[in-house]
Amino acid sequence: MFGGQEQRLSCQSFLTLCANGGRGAMRFSLDESVWTERFSLSRRRRTSGIRIGWLLGLSLMVALLATFSASAVADDDDDEPPKSGEQEEGFLDEEQDEDLPFIFRPEDTFIIPDGEIKKGLDRRVMLSDEDGQVVVGRIHVEGDDRMLVMMPDGKLVSVASKDVQPTDRPFEPASREDVEKKLLEGKLKGFKTRRTKKSRYLYVYNCSDTYAKATSNILETMDDKMMSFLKKMKLDIRDEPEFPLVVLMFADRDAFDDYRPMPPGVGGYYSMITNQIVIYEDRELTDMMPELALRSAVSVIAHEGCHQLFYNVGVQQRFSQWPAWVGEGLPEYCAPTETGKRIRWKGLGRVNNLRFWVLLQYREYRDREDWFQLRDTIEAERLSSLGYATAWGTVYGLHKSRKTRDKFAELMRDLAKLGPLEEPPEPGYYFTKHFGEDYTENRKHVVKELGKARKSYVDPIENQTYIVAVIERSGLGFNPSMISTSPKLLREWARETMGELADSGERSKLRYQAFPTRTQARQALARSRR
Predict the structure, then answer these.
(1) Helix (H) or strand (E) holding 286
(2) What is the bridge-based pairing of β-strands 245-250 and 201-205?
(3) On the CB side of 178, how many CA atoms lie within 13 Å of its CA?
(4) Which of 61, 296, 497, 505 is buried most deeply by CB count within 10 Å?
(5) Strand 276-280 vs strand 245-250: parallel, antiparallel, or unpaired?
(6) Residues 17/24, Cβ–Cβ less than 8 Å
(7) C-alpha distances out from residue 142 to 359, 421, 424, Å
(8) Structure confidence by residue, pLDDT tens digits, 77-107
(9) For residue 327, what are the contacts with CB-CB under 8 A and spacing of at least 6?
(10) Separation CA 109–CA 273 (nearest Å)
């Protein structure tokens, strides 16, 4: 390795970070999540600056993965965490359960009906909305003494059965104009809106116009292709969503949390309760790590866009309980982003470089041949960052393989029948029903397809812009130098180092150059030092 000291995590440390869903990694400061190699004023004090080598790549990527792994479907969870069996470390265990950031309680109380669960069957009721107006709602699901009711704006409310009145009046979804007006009269007063004539979406934002436009471009680029993909699997879906697809975009993290507080590291979410995607423009990260910020934003937007579309065209019913591996693996399969020379939505079913990177790091530190833990992922009730990566790999392999592609479509049609709050069968039921109980054979199909995918894989750590900065001294001695992905850190380092030289009476000059890969940046710096 060129210069500095390379630090490596043990396999155990890597698994611990992944098992915590990146939460541990998110405790690193932003400075520690940037790839930086720094060479100090003294040759004897040549140091690794801010966590370099594989450890830095891991912290950066796990932090990023935690952001869009944690950008989950928000719902109300039971007080009692699900019990876990003996899972492979890195997927789930009981001690880790409380730290996993993938399911959150809404800000307001939302009580899930219990007892004998009955489907809504298009029954309607009269009830008061949040403004005190009497409206017609449609029963989504009903328990013994409580029900979830779909409101005209697409939100779900939890009400006591005694507080509603049955009616034969029709349920009429609100228009996009009515939804927009209601949103702007509440907590989002003063926000801008954006919509196109043919769009299914309503964008409400106080972020920059650039970020809002980029978000709409990603979602609308995905939209029609996603619908075609779902129809090819012969899923019984609606041609158009019943409600406007609302996307809320906030200017910064503070505004995002003011709307609804979220744990650190959550970059966005889709809420099954409000039917909204909620995201924010991370300007601090943009200044610190421009490319990482853009990649993270694209990934979160694409992933949450998949969730929202699935719930609104009939692939999933809100509060239906899909197995985690397909519920999260499918959006990861549908929403890969380009992490090479261009940063964009790559297209449905393409290699997800970010998830593949995690799998490859895990494989490197596994002693056993069965590094791809198919069964543990299939049976996990919640997923860590490693679990998300394996879920993506599982869906990728099953859908790409000619031997399992039709079975995967059958699985999807079966899952689409699941109603809200239906008691899920034992873990692994749907997988073994459609693919059989031979996990070893199924694993071979998946790993074979992942092997083919290596040809299209682009290392997301290696392939980002690296800046080489060298401070040329007027006196004798070693010229301080630095390689970093962060313009902000480079500015701060140059200011501090050149100040030290000035204090000692030396003149200095800063020169820098950007390179598209880490290898090229290291080679250029090595040449300059000869």
Answers:
(1) helix 283-288
(2) parallel
(3) 9
(4) 296
(5) parallel
(6) yes
(7) 42, 9, 17
(8) 433 333 333 333 333 333 333 333 333 333 3
(9) 73, 316
(10) 11
DSSP 273: T
A 10 A CB-CB count for 387 gives 30
Please say whether the beta carbons of 43 and 480 come within 8 A: no
Count CB atoms within 10 A of the CB of residue 5.
12
Could you tell me the sign of the dihedral formed by the alpha carbons of 136, 140, 144, 145, in that order?
Answer: negative
Structure tokens at 96: 């880790």
Instruction: Give φ, ψ of 137 to 5 degrees.
Output: -115, 160
Tokens for 129?
């909305």
Nearest-angstrom CA–CA distance, 512 and 485: 12
Cβ atoms 104, 64 nearer than 8 A: no
User: Which token pair is 264?
Assistant: 């650190």
First to last CA, the chain: 16
> Whole-angstrom Cα distance, residue 317 to residue 291?
35
DSSP calls for 336-393 = -B--SSS-SB--TTS--HHHHHHHHHHHHT--SS--S-HHHHHH-SS--HHHHHHHHH
- Tokens for 445, please give them: 């199909």
Do the strands 73-74 and 268-271 form a parallel or antiparallel pair, or are they unpaired?
parallel
Half-sphere exposure of 145 (CA within 13 A, CB side): 1
287 strand-pairing partners: none
User: If DSSP codes are grouped into helix, strand and coil, which group holds residue 271?
Assistant: strand
C-alpha–C-alpha distance, residues 248 and 263, integer Å: 18
Q: Find the helix or strand (DSSP H, E) in which 165 lies.
A: strand 165-167
What are the beta bridge partners of residue 280? 250
Is the pTM higher than 0.85? The answer reads no
The pLDDT value recorded for residue 9 is: 29
From residue 110, give the alpha-carbon distance in Å to each of 147, 151, 156, 373.
11, 15, 9, 36
pLDDT 10s digits, 120-160: 999 999 999 888 889 999 999 999 999 999 999 999 999 99
Place of tokens 């993290």: 253
Quote the CA–CA distance of 304 and 450 in Å, as a whole number.
24
CB 390, CB 372: distance < 8 Å = yes
Q: State the virtual CA torsion across 363, 366, 367, 373 in degrees, nearest 10.
A: -80
Q: Are 101 and 133 in contact (CB under 8 A)?
A: no
Distance, in Å, from the CA atom of 127 to the CA atom of 204, rounded to the nearest integer, reads 27
Closest CA to 198 of 237, 227, 155, 156: 227
